[in-house]
Each structure stands twice: as structure tokens, then as C-alpha cells.
Amino acid sequence: MTTTVFALTAFVFSAALAGVFWGPTFAYAHAQLPAYQRPMATAIFLCLFNLVGLGLGPAAVGAASDWFASIGVARPLSLALVLMHVCGLWGAWHYWQVMRVIRSDGYVSTCK
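-> C-alpha cells emitted (112 positions)
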């Protein structure tokens, strides 16, 4: 398998899994709120998500890449991007733990 094929395969796999949390997140958030508050909650969540993701994400990758280059790593940008994916796995683990807590508490929505 060539490097290009491997990179494209890894990208497709990553992109396919990138949005699997949206449905459960919005379903849980909407179940906590009355119907008239759901659009505003969604807007605030998306705004904050994009500010953090689009604001801090590229800056963190750039800072990590610069640091790896300063210590002599051969492919600093590649390593920085892999590090960000590892951080994503860490976030997924936390998401999984929250789901287990919600399920164990026998969550039932009270909002209609």
C-alpha cells in the first residue's frame, strides 16, 4: 500500500467518524429543554463548538508542529496532526463515559 493510498484511507475513516456524536448530543440537549429553547441552545452549542474547533484547533496544530520542528522531528506537521487525532480519541472516551453515566442513571426526559 502506497503512502498516498494509506493517507486517503485514514482520512476517509476519520472523516466518516467525525460527525457520529452530533445526533446523540443534540438529542440529549433537546430532551433537557422545552421546545422554545432548543433552537437557541443549538445555536449557542454550534457557535462555541466552531469557535473552539476552528479557532484553537489550527493554532494548536501549528504550535505543536513548530515545537516538534524545534526539537528536530523529521515530519513535524504529520506528527502534530496525528497528535490531534489522539486527542480526538481521548474526547471520544470521555463521551463514552458520559453515555454510560446517563444510561446507568435511568435517564428519562421530562420536557415535552
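The chain has one domain: 22-104.
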